[in-house]
Write a structure and sequence with these properties.
Rossmann fold; two-stranded parallel sheet; 149 residues; two-stranded parallel ribbon; globular; mainly alpha
């Protein structure tokens, strides 16, 4: 899960998908990162932490990190929140195989629409972000847990 600073959208996405995967009995490695290093080592935004707690998910222990080239080796998929994140992550990819791992997360919920998850940092839209990510993560669980059954 990747956004710009790794303090709002991507840790929320990480928390939601990890929670859903655990509930579904799936042994998935789920992580998040930012395309920038602005918040490296910081906890998620307190508004994101509060919103996630309202939905029964604790992301407070997470710490921001920057996306690294090794992430393309570690993860099968790299979900991004918007078009800018998509472009930035593709610049890090070394080859077409790595580029193919990068996907807009909202395309899981609404295939081919290239929808985005808006950054809630300045407009306090954390509930909207939660609802979008919850929808996308439900689609991810359904899609990939069926492939593993």
């Amino acid at each position: 899960m990747v956004c710009l600073g790794n303090i709002c959208r991507s840790p929320m996405a990480e928390g939601i998908l990890r929670h859903k995967a655990t509930e579904a009995g799936l042994n998935w490695l789920v992580d998040s990162a930012g395309t920038s290093d602005w918040h490296r080592g910081e906890a998620p935004d307190t508004r994101a932490v509060r919103k996630m707690r309202e939905h029964g998910i604790d992301i407070a222990p997470l710490r921001a990190r920057q996306l690294a080239p090794k992430d393309f080796e570690t993860f099968d998929l790299i979900y991004v929140m918007d078009a800018e994140n998509y472009r930035d992550v593709l610049r890090i990819a070394l080859n077409n195989q790595q580029k193919a791992k990068v996907q807009l997360i909202m395309n899981e919920a609404e295939p081919g629409k290239n929808g985005i998850v808006p950054d809630p940092y300045f407009n306090n839209g954390f509930e909207t972000v939660y609802q979008l990510l919850n929808q996308a993560c439900n689609a991810i669980i359904q899609k990939y847990s069926e492939k593993n059954s």
